[in-house]
Fold this protein.
Amino acid sequence: MIVNSTHPGNILLGVTGGIAAYKSAEILRLLVKRGFDVKVVLTENGARFIGAETLAALSGHPVYSMMFAPSRNENIGHISLSDWADLFLVAPATANIIGKFASGIADDLLSTVFLSCECPILIAPAMNVRMFSHPVVQENIKKLRELGASFIGPESGELACGTSGKGRMSAPDAIVEATIAAMRCSRDLEGISFLISAGPTREMIDPIRFLSNRSSGRMGFAMARAAAARGARVTLLSGPTAIEPPSNVRLVRVVSAEEMRDEALSLLPDHQVIIMAAAVADYRPKQALSHKMKKDRGDVSLSLIRTPDILQEIGASASGKNVLVGFAAETNDLLENASRKLLKKRLDLIVANDVSDVGIGFEAEENAVTLVWPSGRTRKVGRMAKDALSDLILNDVLQIARDKLCL
Ligand code: PMT
């Protein structure tokens, strides 16, 4: 689908029954303002939280709720709605509708539309924190992701039920950005090969102790998941992590910086775009003991030596046939330090990551970054979920790949 500025496309917005339904009016308003034609499917429970008249007035279309309209003239089939849509957005999506989607239950208009939908699907969950973390809901989300649906949020914060935790629907403007990214991309990375690194490395002191850092792998895994969902062939080169890797990528596990370097260099010839989101240890113990270090020696000093700088080696050896993207985790002088790394490692783009705030960057579900190009151009991207951020970064990476690799 080609997105143009006068009519960027048709969006079918599903609204289900949760307190966040009031925010769907704002999502709708923002989408219409950006030129999208939006039709709304409102579930019976959704109508308890927001009036169909409000959504009809904002969209300029009748709101669709019933499978079988009272009059034949008003009847609109689920097939014609799903045929019309370029993207199906469900915001808010309750645990109930996610469960129906995941198990193929089609007992109302919205769940029936889902089954007949061939366009990209974006789901913005909203529910109580305990419901969201329930293994059944997590399993349903995993299944839908594997089937190609994208998710934005939920975020952590205060919930309508009086508790706080992960379950709050993402902000309307973040959902709109993710919608636009999803509209633009669908399978736009098909035919491009990505090598994406993630997680920390471990530098062994002895068989049970190591030096490492707080990287969870979330950022790199999110990049890999987003690239694969857009049709890319992805190899994910990961240090030790505890989170679930995407199932539709090739996963290569390593432990140390040296192992990551060896794998990266051997995988390099088969990949066009290299994205290093891993937090590679800069130092390792000069000698790893083969036995457990005993404490009867009293105080000890560790002698540390530099690990290989993987990205710098790749930058020095790449033949111009690769796109090289780095991340820079900085606690101070963000742009200055990131720009220096960009030039030193001969990168096409660096994602400057302010890690001084505990809620973003390392371990967190969200990130806030500034993209820096070799020309000195910069673009600040506000705080958002790592999944949504990955799509925004990939849009720029694709542009660079098209220019540099003549795709
Ligand atoms: O994993 P998460 O918990 O989701 O956290 C995400 C993150 C904060 C780890 C990620 O967003 C990030 O910023 N990754 C890069 C962290 C880092 O080590 O930055 P750096 O400034 O030290 O390195 C700059 C670049 O060179 C990075 O692309 C890094 O992968 C690469 N590098 C660094 C050292 C080294 N020896 N070899 C490398 O290739």
Q: What stands out?
A: Residues 1-6 have pLDDT under 50 and may be disordered. Residues 386-405 form the longest helix (20 residues). The longest strand covers residues 323-330.
